[in-house]
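Researcher: I'm preparing a figure for a lab meeting and need a structural model of a single chain. I don't have an experimental structure, so a prediction will have to do for now. The sequence is pasted below. Please return the structure as tokens so I can convert it later.
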Amino acid sequence: MSKGFCTRRAWLKAISIALFLFCSTGNAASTGLMLSYELTHDMLRMPDNFSVSVYEDGVALVHYPDYMKKAGDYQVELTPSEVQQIRLLLEHPLVQGFNPGQAKAQKKGIDDQSQELFAISDDSWSNFEVHTPGNEKSIRWANVAIDAERYPEIGVFKKLADIEAQLLQLDQHPTAVAVAD
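Model: Understood. Here is the structure written out token by token.
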């Protein structure tokens, strides 16, 4: 482990989650990864961020960083219909065909026409690693929820905001179980 790569605590958390999964799934790892998500904030330059991994078998691993009220690690068992709902969002043509350059150009065109002044001082970055059959896609976009509200005509922002909203509330899922350190 190189200095600065990961803290000892981060490694212990990762090992704890791995052991919990190993023990709780009958010694079988979760099936394929569907989505890996991380939310980072420009004003919080910390290695500990909100993150979620969702697997095809419905297992979701959620990590809330120490600075959040809900701090800790959770395991959630999604129902088949919840997995299907997430899968449909991930496989949607707007998400699969997302082009950041095109989205920026569309935003600029709308902003130029509106003549409204708008600024965000500290961005929040949504980082999606989407794994669908035959395709893997990385999407990194700042202020997804704000863009979904400000630019409803750019449909991909709504799709990404819908995915993000579901992930941010997984700790409230009826099957959410805190994973002890």
